[in-house]
Amino acid sequence: METLISIKPVLAIAVSLAAVLLIYLTGERSKNLRETWTILAAVTKFTIVASMVPSVLNGKILEYTLISIAPGLSIQFKVDAIGIFFAALASFLWIITSVYSIGYMRSLNERAQTRYFACFAIALSATMGVAFSANMFTTFLFYEIITLCTFPLVAHKETPEAIKGARRYLTYLLGTSVAFQLTAVLLTYNTAGTLDFSNQGIFAGKGSDLLLTIIFVLYMAGITKAAMMPFHSWLPAAMVAPTPVSALLHAVAVVKTGVFVVVKVVLHIFGIDLLQKLGLGTALAYFASFTIIVASIIALKQDNLKRRLAYSTVSQLSYVILGVALLTPSAITGGIMHIVLHAFGKITLFFTAGSIYVATHKTEINQLDGIGRKMPFTMTAFTLGALSMIAIPPLGGFISKWYIGIGALEAGQLPIILVLVASTILNACYFIPIVYSAFFKEPIKDHEHHDEKHNGLSESPAMMVVPLMLTAIGALALFFYPGVFIELARIIMATVT
Amino acid sequence: MNITDQAPGLIIVLPLIASLLNIMVGSWRRAFCYPFAVAALGACAALSVNILYAVINNGAIHYRLGGWEPPWGIELMIDHLNAFIAVVVSFMSLIVAVYSKKSIEQELPADKTSYFYTIYLLLATGMLGITVSGDVFNIFVFLEITALAGYALIAIGDDRAPLASFNYVIMGTIGACFYLLGVGYLYIMTGSLNIADLSRLLPDLYHSKVVLVAFAFFMVGIAIKIAFFPLHIWLPDAYTHAPSSVSALVASTMTKVGAYVMLRITFTVFEPYFSSEVVPMTAILGWSAFAAIIFGSILAVGQTDFKRMLSYILIAEVGYIVLGVSLGNRQGFTGSVLHILNDAVMIACLFMVAGAVVYKRGARNLNDFIGLNKKMPVTMAAFSVAAVSMIGVPPTAGFFSKWYLILGSLQAEKWAFAAALLFSSLINAVLFFRILEKVYLKGSRGQGFKESSEEETSFDEVPLSMLIPILVTAVGIIILGLYSGRIISSIIQFTVPEGF
Amino acid sequence: MEFIISKYNYWIYIVLMMIGFYAMIAKRNLVKKLVGMNIFQTAIILYFISIASKKGATIPIIQEAQGAINPAQYVNPLPHVLMLTAIVVMVSIFGVALALIIMIYRKYRTLDEDEIIEILRGKK
Question: In angstroms, what is the C-alpha Rg of chain A?
Fold first, then answer.
């Protein structure tokens, strides 16, 4: 494998940091100019990331050491297949979300928009940092930055409720990462003598089985962003954030950072062989299965749309972990593919939730009867997203579940198949009724005169509808053209097995 | 005459003479005191850097006062460790001196400011003296000069300061006298006071009871001086009620200098072998440090006075330093020495922020931080950096010293110590996010809090002379974090005693 | 008994030191604390001076005519020098402490620690 020195990963991170500065300097004086910076940064970032894809597809690895702090502790970037996979996804969706954010924030006339856009940009920088990091230290650094810079986003409304949610968010994410993840990183360094990611894992022949198991458990407990039970409750709590935040960060960037780090730990810190030897992969798979089922059941009972989506996210994230934990080629491919497929589906769903809120100020599912007539575009997108979540072909979500299923067979874990089936049914149970009532039920008659006004179409602004249509189409298109993503997943597979 | 050759002597003499001249300057033109003191401390800082470079390039410096041969003459001995500490002390003194102008003008009657700078320079003299001294008795003298200046400076604080200072006098004197007794016992046995000489003579006497007693006296004496748990009771009162700039200086440097003396006694005067094998001192230190970290952190949670909270955090931080030393391995020692630097900068930054809040709001309760992000955005940004560093989030400096300390604990297989360090990180997270919330978020203010008027939220930063030092330390926290590897490889790794 | 008598200087210093220590810790009156501190310090001075003395030795002034120098004939001058410095240090601490006491007295009109704490509580 060829390794090139390239500053591109640093640029990809720096571009949104530069945007932060410009956003703050512009401030509230010229909103249009301020938003231009966000869009500009998003497009530039994606261009930079995209420009690295061809070299990665050609089997090259781009590396750049930003600063070497101490032996074994350096801020170092390495663009490999899995990194570019995640970075491309996040940076692409940032463009769409930025447009959507502008529509959302302006429609609702939200406060502190400068801080909002600035924190968003930092969060994306840090996400790129995690995606491109070459060692666990760099990962940890950006992981913590994500936590800190999304805290103001969750607390954005600054109501006592928002503060409460944000506190829980921070307690879970920062608390566990300091208590468990940092311990795990330290133990890793102490045992293996290095933190650099390696395709074969770094523990070969080091440490006792017991110690390695403890380290693994600490990692899994510490990477709370992956929202595995029992450390999942920060995610529903974080739903107090404005919807674009929930959409990009709590369906893509933040939570996917969590599962991304889990994948990294499984593949590049421990390595498939070692985990198989220790039997930890299977244990993790069943743990993830538990989360998948239980979170789905909890989702059924949620009446708040965003909370239901949040529990759905908790459940879906564990698919990725499940796929990777099965440790067979197909399952890993499926798990990794699920990162992108779930992202498109779930971001669509959150976008629609935001769109409904902006247009009608409705947040509860029982209020949504007949809304499909007023907001056909939004609800069509919702349907596509929901179908993708349920994994019905021809929608993207099907691909990953298919692969995971095959992987489970390869691994000889038949109960996993049952889990997949059960969760598909549960997914259908909590999504289909929404779709049904939106399109086929009679709208509840408001006793106010709203009715006549709302009889026709009352979609939210185009700046919101267009993005959510785009992501919905994306969820559909990925089934037919998984293209570059499946290509990258194959390369990832090839390197770790 | 080459300045570098004379630098070790000058670094003590210069602030001492400056402090005397300062009185004259003050009686001539009071306004000149501040620039004069800053200039003198600037010169000290330059000298300390000069010394550090000389040590890095040519190894340890032995400077004979008056040209007398040691062990009879007084020798200043500077190796990597004290050159490093001297730089920390002189720079922190300089930064805080720059900061002090406006805050002292507010807290002191105008005719007293010249005396303030005189005593301030004396304090710097004392601390620099401790760091460059090569014999144990001179360390005592400079310890007392430092303490004297400290007593006086703390006493000029708020209403309760004199009593706090008096209690500090009593405790500090006990500490100093114990130290002096330790010196006496060593002198009986060896007939020498020179550190290098002592470390040569002592190994033969390690099993003498007198030496053991001497060691015990040293440890207890220094433990009082650095407010090491459970001998910390004087510290919270003294540091809370002192004037803002004084708290910033003494909190960031005095405990660090004391920690330096502890390192010298445990690892240079006595060998690591003695401190860990002959007497189980390192074990005792380690577990006391463990207790210091736990209790310091827990007690900090209960405080509503910001400076008092910082004082308890400081007690925990002293625990960090001692804990690292007690581990008896390279990583732990590195972490300790690095933490001396990092903590000095972080604590100074936090106390200066406290001073800035006092300057603008006239009080320093946690509730006085409400909504300060609009009024003092720059100060609060600096505060956030320091807070994040105290929690230990990379790439701030606080992360790296903690990293080495925990790594050291893991290597020594002291799991409890690693857990204590992480625990204190978590507590710090609680402590500081509690405040950051008040600073940045509106909803946290609870019911009954009146929506601030337009005037309240308008931009109202502290003067530049206070703002710049705060910013320097905040930026310093990040830069020190990023360069901690460089600092370790060029300085700290040479301070680790042999046998680690 | 022999042990006690032969080292009587140490015993005296320890007793003095403990008296001082007790006063510093247990007395509630600030002036008494200060007196205790003084006794404590004096004990240490006594200790240092006593270790310098030798039986039958004289002041350490060496006359050239005497020829070879026998150290046993002279008391050790170094502890005296150290103590001169220490006395200066202690006197200045005493001075600062007295100044503090005056400040405290002006503020609270009492020097009893308990009463002061009472006053401070009342203020809150």
Answer: 22
- Which residues are registered as beta bridge partners of A61? A3
Instruction: Please say if the pLDDT value at position A412 is more than 90.
Output: no
Which of B155, B165, B184 lies at the smallest CB-CB distance from C51? B184
Q: Mean pLDDT over all residues of chain B?
A: 87
Per-residue tokens: A32: 């249009």
Which of B119, B141, B167, B169 is the best residue to mutate to test the C interface, defined by the most C CB atoms within 10 Å of its own CB? Answer: B169
Distance CA B389, CA C35 (A): 45
At residue B462, the 3 state secondary structure works out as coil
CA nearest neighbour of A180 among A211, A215, A137: A215
CB contact under 8 A, B391 and A67: no
Neighbouring subunits of B (3+ Cβ pairs under 8 A): A, C
Tell the residue number behind the tokens 């909803």, with chain if given: B443
Q: Is the pLDDT of residue A87 over 70?
A: yes
For residue B22, give the nearest of B141, B112, B153 by alpha carbon. B112
Residues forming a β-bridge with B76: B63, B133
Mean pLDDT of C9-37: 89
**Host H or E run for residue A3:** strand A2-5
**ipTM computed for the complex:** 0.91
Residue A225 near residue A261 (C-beta atoms within 8 A)? yes
A residues 157-186 lying closer than 8 A (beta carbon) to B: 157-163, 166-167, 170, 174-175, 178-179, 182-183, 186
Nearest to C41 among B162, B163, B177 (CB): B177
Q: For all residues of chain C together, what is the average pLDDT?
A: 84
For residue C61, the distance in angstroms to the closest alpha carbon of chain B comes to 17
Q: Which residues of B touch A137 (CB under 8 A)?
A: 394
Angle at A272 between CA A266 and CA A275, to 5 degrees: 75
**Is C47's CB within 8 Å of B184's CB?**
yes
Place of tokens 């005397």: B20
From the list A147, A303, A112, A309, the residue with the least C-alpha distance to A223 is A147
Q: How confident is the model at residue B386 (pLDDT cuts 50, 70, 90)?
A: very high
End-to-end CA distance of chain A: 15
Structure-token match 């810190």, residue found: A269
Q: Is C56 left (phi over 0), alpha (psi -120 to 50) or beta?
A: left
Of A426, A467, A397, residue with least CA distance to A101: A467
Q: Looking at beta carbons, which residues of chain A come within 8 Å of B441?
A: 152, 155, 158, 163, 166
Contact (Cβ atoms closer than 8 angstroms) between residue A231 and residue A120: no
Residue C85's CB is within 10 A of a number of other CB atoms, namely 14
A493 Cβ contact partners less than 8 Å away, ≥ 6 residues apart: A329, A332, A333
Contact A69 B484 (CB under 8 A): yes
Q: A83 with A8: CB under 8 angstroms? A: no
Alpha-carbon Rg for chain B in angstroms: 22
> How many B×C Cβ pairs under 8 Å?
71
Q: DSSP 3-state assignment of B226?
A: coil
The tokens describing A388, both together, are 């993708």
Q: Distance from C2 to chain B by nearest Cα, in Å?
A: 19
C37–B180: do the CB atoms touch at under 8 Å? no
Q: What is the pTM of this model?
A: 0.89
CA–CA dist B45, B9 (Å, integer): 14
Residue numbers in B near A218 (CB within 8 A): none
Structure tokens at A261: 């780090």
Instruction: Decide: helix, strand or coil at residue A190.
Output: helix
Q: Which residues of B touch C40 (CB under 8 A)?
A: 173-174, 177
A145 contacts on B by Cβ (under 8 Å): 393
Cβ count near B92 (within 10 Å): 27
Nearest CA to A321 out of A282, A272, A276, A284 is that of A284
